[in-house]
Amino acid sequence: MTTNSLSSTAFSLPAETPASQGFSMPAEFAPHKACWMLWPQRPDTWRYGAKPAQQAFVDVASAIADSETVFVGVNDEQYENARNQLPESVRVVELSNNDAWMRDVGPTFLTSPDGHLAMVDWQFNAWGGLEGGLYFPWDKDRRIRSKIAEILGIPRFEVPVVLEGGAIHVDGEGTLITTRECLLNPNRNPGLDQAGMEQVLREYLGVTKVIWLPRGCYRDETDGHVDNLCCFVAPGEVALTWCDDENDPQHAISRQALELLENSTDARGRSLKVHKFTQPGPLHIAEEEASGIDRLNSSYPRQPGDRMAASYVNFYIGNSVVVMPLLDPAHDDDARKRLQALFPDRRVIGVPAREILLGGGNIHCITQQQPSV
């Protein structure tokens, strides 16, 4: 199996795109109808049969359920276990999957001014296919979006472009932020250049301005997803992962991103206000944490001492809550206070999230908001 391949010259957009029909992607801080998640069980991703990770997912789902309806998709063999662990208010649905990263395998929801909901069904190749991807196969993950479209009874716009939800953030007013490291990576869409990708983003997400950051967080195994580095917290305002240590590779990445953001304007011509969030740690995989993971040739290896791409920017914005990862006692309280200042009308809930980080992502990566219409 190979990655999807297309070129910006060969790829032609259909006559009817989401943007041509008035659809666009709302900001995450806009009102939600629900949140979608998946249930972890993969033993080569999650240690000790995913039991520690399952508790972390329960904590995240419970926190978000105070704010909006939460759906958790589960493989059949884990249905009863998930149902018994999750609160009654969380809706558990059978939804076959290869792994639990709903942000990347779930739909990108769209809304229209006349009150309709739709979704974009991107291609998915497990973050790089056979050229750096994290596991094989990913066939069940590829069907999740179409199944959710069936459950909700909404239109589905399928596009032959590989794109994960964690690779993009929007302000809901025409601006999208992403990284070249990910969206222009040849293991996603070989031959699709920046101009071609921007055309896709405009027509399928309804944006008019794309801000390209060079790289994502250091050692991010997703090839630099923007949701671990930078996100919109309000129109004209972003949160940015920060590092003061000049000897840390993250320092140069964050500094480069800051300079670009401070010299950028959004789709409405506003200068961007940047809020810095000092990174946790640095955090590394401990010996006992690595020893609990199954070693398979078809999955990404995690070794003792490996640095993890830990970030406080990887949080979820709900209707009445912001759910943030607790990762480092030295920095957790400061990150919580900064988030509370940015979201004074929402309750900031910290969830111990190291088990999610050990799997390669964090709270934003395991959630996907369904906007209200």
Task: Describe this structure in a few short sentences.
By secondary structure, the chain is of the alpha/beta class. The protein contains ten helices and 18 strands.
What does this structure look like?
The chain is α/β, with parallel strands linked by helices and 373 residues long. The protein has a single domain, classed as 5-stranded Propeller (L-arginine/glycine Amidinotransferase, Chain A). Helix content is 24%, strand content 23%. It has ten helices and 18 strands. The strands form six sheets. The chain has a four-stranded mixed beta sheet. A hairpin with a 5-residue loop joins strand 4 and strand 5 (117-123). The model is unreliable at 1-10 (pLDDT under 50).
Query: CATH first level: which class?
Result: Alpha Beta
Share of helix, binned:
10-25%
As an assembly, this protein is single chain
Strand order of the largest sheet: 3-2-1-18
> Would you count the extended β strands for me?
18
Question: From the 3D coordinates, which CATH architecture would you assign?
Answer: 5-stranded Propeller
CATH homologous superfamily placement: L-arginine/glycine Amidinotransferase, Chain A
Total count of domains: 1
Assign the structural class, choosing from mainly alpha, mainly beta, alpha/beta, alpha+beta, or little secondary structure: alpha/beta
Give the uncertain stretches in residue-range form: 1-10
Compute the CA-based radius of gyration.
19 Å
Distance between the termini: 39 Å
Mean pLDDT: 95
SSE arrangement, N to C: EHEHEHEEHEEEHHEEEHEEHEEEHEHE
So how many helices?
A: 10
CATH topology: L-arginine/glycine Amidinotransferase, Chain A
Binned strand content: 15-25%
Active site: 365 (amidino-cysteine intermediate)
EC number: 3.5.3.12
Protein name: Putative agmatine deiminase
Family: Belongs to the agmatine deiminase family.
